[in-house]
Amino acid sequence: LVMFISASIDSFGFLLNALFLAVLVPLAYEDEVDLNLLVLAGFVGALAYLNKLSYIYIPIALGAAVFMKLAGRGVSWRRHVLLMAVFVLSLLLVVYSALFFVLGHETMHDLYNFQMGVFWGTGLYGTGDQNIVSGGALWHAINSIPNDRTYSVLIGLVGGTALAIGGLVTWWWRPQHLPAAVISIAAGDAAALSALFVLKHYGGHYTAGVAATLPAAVVAAYLLLEAWGLRLRLTGFAGASIAAASAVAIVVLAVKIEPTLTGQLATQLLRTQEAETDLQEIKKYMAEDPRNFEFGYRGPHREYGEGFVVGSASVPRLTYEYFLNRTRVD
User: Fold this and answer.
1) pLDDT above 70: residue 317
2) Are 190 and 58 in contact (CB under 8 A)?
3) CA distance 151 to 87
4) Predicted pLDDT of residue 15
């Protein structure tokens, strides 16, 4: 909840998962797979990947949905391969176009090396053990969940796995409910893969990405239960009891998160007030110098300030002037 109170790549996960579900539902329910829909699915997957590496579960889940949908419809293998290629090529076209025209070839290579390091390593940004999966890192992540109250990770891992398995069973045994099976497989894959990524590279703020997958998982669970003839029709005393228990659970969780959330909001308000004061001083410096300025505020690391301009902006004149005015910089 703390990660969602301001616009960020973490809160953006809700928009991406909403787009994911918006594409997944027509993909599952349409009798014939539309090429335009596959292209759109590729674009959504590319948008998710370009936003954040951990959101790669969205294109993977969409790919699984397309594959299972085509297999369930009995499409010929030639057409199956063709339609899968449309989805994959649409995704790659957007990704490589964005990377090439925005970042350039050399930066693309650096990004590839970084992401390979994240894949092969554990911990934040792959700086831990150089194993794809480290038992120590997983155990540390699991032990941190109760203290950090990041239960969405366990819900996503267990619930997502159950949904994916339930979807596969439904796909095999009840083909007349193919849409529910496809949605369950894709939503379950998304939740489980997101949770696994967080466990591999555990960080409290990463768990917000897992929470964003849960609304689609709830929709999938409802459809899956209906496919097996299990309808949740709770009325009378039983329905009132469950509603009351849910309200109590929400209040209990809200009470626990309230101090952290209040502190976060107060800190952001204070930083905003301080920034307004600092901006007046910054304007004074800028008024006395005709050159262009680029500065980072509230940067947690030096790479977000001057070091970012020197190391990443790739502007030779700025780099030259920086070292010219910083004679004691090594």
Assistant:
1) no
2) yes
3) 34
4) 87
**Amino acid code (one letter) for 284:** K
Alpha-carbon distances of 42 from 12, 18, 200, rounded to whole Å: 18, 15, 26
At 220, list the tokens. Answer: 């999938």
Worst-scoring range by mean pLDDT, 25-29, 100-104, 313-317?
313-317
Highest average pLDDT, of 49-58, 63-72, 150-159, 288-297, comes from 63-72
Annotate 246-296 with DSSP letters as a single string: HHHHHHHHHHHHHHHHHHHHHHHHHHHHHHHHHHHHHHHHHHT--S-----
299 Cβ contact partners less than 8 Å away, ≥ 6 residues apart:
305, 308
What tens digit of pLDDT does each residue of 221-235 get? 999 999 988 776 666
Burial of 69 (0-12, 13-18, 19+ CB in 10 A): buried
**If you average pLDDT over residues 95-111, what whole number do you get?**
76
d(CA 258, CA 262): 6
Nearest Cα to 200, choosing from 123, 139, 131, 117?
Answer: 123
